[in-house]
Amino acid sequence: MKRTIIMMLDSFGVGAATDAESFGDVGSDTFGSIAKACAEGRADIGREGPLKLPNLAKLGLALAAKESTGAFAPGFSDNVEVIGAYGHADELSTGKDTPSGHWEMAGVPVLYEWGYFSDLTNSFPKELTDKILARAGLDGYLGNCHASGTTILEELGEEHMRTGQPIFYTSADSVFQIACHEESFGLENLYNLCIIAREELADYNIGRVIARAFVGTGPSDFARTGNRRDYAVEPPAKTVLDKMKEAGGEVISVGKIADIYAHCGITQKVKATGLEALFDATLEQVKLAGDKTIVFTNFVDFDSHYGHRRDIAGYAKALEYFDSRLPEMLELLSEDDLLILTADHGCDPSWKGSDHTRERVPVLAYGGGLAAGSLGRRNSFADIGQSIASYFKLEPMEYGESFIK
Ligand SMILES: O=P(O)(O)O[C@H]1O[C@H](CO)[C@@H](O)[C@H]1O
Ligand SMILES: [Mn+2]
Ligand SMILES: [Mn+2]
Questions:
Q1: Looking at ligand 1, which residue's alpha carbon is closest to its atom 7?
Q2: What is the pLDDT of residues 244-301, one digit of tens each?
Q3: Euclidean distance between CA atoms 309 and 326, whole angstroms
Q4: Domain boundaries along the sequence of the chain
């Protein structure tokens, strides 16, 4: 039975990318910074001491990171028997955003420039927001700036509830984000507003409109819910997921994968919110999956709950939880199955600001006939897509070099 399971740890970078300088991210290192803080006793909230990731280390994480940065992350060494193939990859795509990272790992790098709203305040052209408001029948909006999605709720959430005006904000990514209260504004109204915005943004080359639904009564208890929805544009070419689907295979999206690929190349969607539920759903799908199947999960919490929130201890605890459950996954795999663990960009929780960091990502591959050992530095995340194409004997991708014969 041939199946590929992709566990995509959103934002789990392993050190600054070769081109990090052009992003102002030289020295960023998501994994390394978390390990360092843990080793120094600076991440003892809800957990304690050095970062413990024995199962990820067995799959080669520590060595992959060492080959990326030149030194072992604090608390890690080569004193472990590695059972998988491990490498680290630079990104070819121009942006350090989620769609770019995901599409590239599926064999389609984004070589064009996205549109960005780069002004930190007054970020959106009036012409654009006027059209969106008119079509939605709204008399105004709040925000109009770069912001952290949780901070802006504390600042504007109450005013939004009082006035009924949606909160529009953006970030260093190519995004137009709309935060609205699920009850006072209404979830369907939020989704409809996002669809209008998606249409009006056609000429702006913006990667995603994101619905940010939240609940609560005031700044102290406002909380975003699992009803986030991403409206992405379609990838510029067929990804390995499209090719798999066309070849009659199954492509099962767990979590927000389907949204990120604009539902292209997906045969089944499974929703789950939170690390535990996402892990449970992934195991469940692997149990059910037959031959010629890709099970692809995005573990978004690493990024959205901890990376963007610059919460080092939270990130460490989440990694340790993920690691503790890996044996359950390994147990489900048959000899032929291929397990890939990777990331889409960095989001170093020790870094300035609240945006992603341009980093290399780990490429941990286990099974599929691969010998344990180093895959070295890969020039593109597309090596993953190319390897999956060759594993399932699909037509080769235009980009990427396969590490599977
Ligand atoms: O601060 P929050 O709302 O989590 O937003 C973050 O999440 C977006 C999508 O990943 C990024 O562009 C960044 O702005
Ligand atoms: Mn991401
Ligand atoms: Mn993010």
A1: 304
A2: 999 999 999 999 999 999 999 999 999 999 999 999 999 999 999 999 999 999 999 9
A3: 25
A4: 3-112+236-391, 126-232
The second-level CATH assignment, the architecture, of 126-232 is 2-Layer Sandwich (3.30)
Atom of ligand 1 nearest to the CA of 98: 10
Looking at residue 405, its pLDDT comes to 85
Q: Which CATH class is domain 3-112+236-391?
A: alpha beta
**How much distance in Å is there from the Cα of 97 to the middle of ligand 2?**
6
Ligand 1 test: best mutation among 10, 152, 209, 210, most atoms within 8 Å of CB?
Answer: 210
Q: Take atom 3 of ligand 1 and give the residue whose Cα is closest.
A: 149
Those residues with Cβ within 8 angstroms of residue 118's Cβ, 6 or more apart along the chain or in another chain: none
CA–CA distance, 323 with 339 (Å, rounded to integer): 14
What mean pLDDT is predicted for residues 314-335? 98
Name 179's bridge partners.
Answer: 167, 212
CB distance 88 to 69 below 8 Å: no
List pocket residues of ligand 1, CB cut-off 6 Å: 98, 148-149, 171, 173, 175, 177, 210, 212, 304, 308, 354
**70 within 8 A of 146, measured Cβ to Cβ:** no
Residues 146, 152 contacting (CB under 8 angstroms):
no
Instruction: Enter the pTM of the model.
Output: 0.95
Across residues 302-307, what is the average pLDDT?
98
- Ligand closest in space to the Cα of 356: 3
For the segment 100-112, the average pLDDT, to the nearest whole number, is 98
Q: Which ligand has its closest atom nearest to the C-alpha of 8? A: 2
Is 344 annotated to bind a ligand? Reply is yes
Angle between helices 275-288 and 312-332 (to 10 degrees): 10
ipTM exceeding 0.90, yes/no = yes
The H or E element containing residue 223 is strand 223-224
Residue 308 marked in a binding site: yes
| Ligand 1 nearest atom to the CA of residue 147, by list position | 1
**DSSP secondary structure string for all residues of 237-286:** S--HHHHHHHTT-EEEEETTHHHHTTTTT-SEEE---SHHHHHHHHHHHH
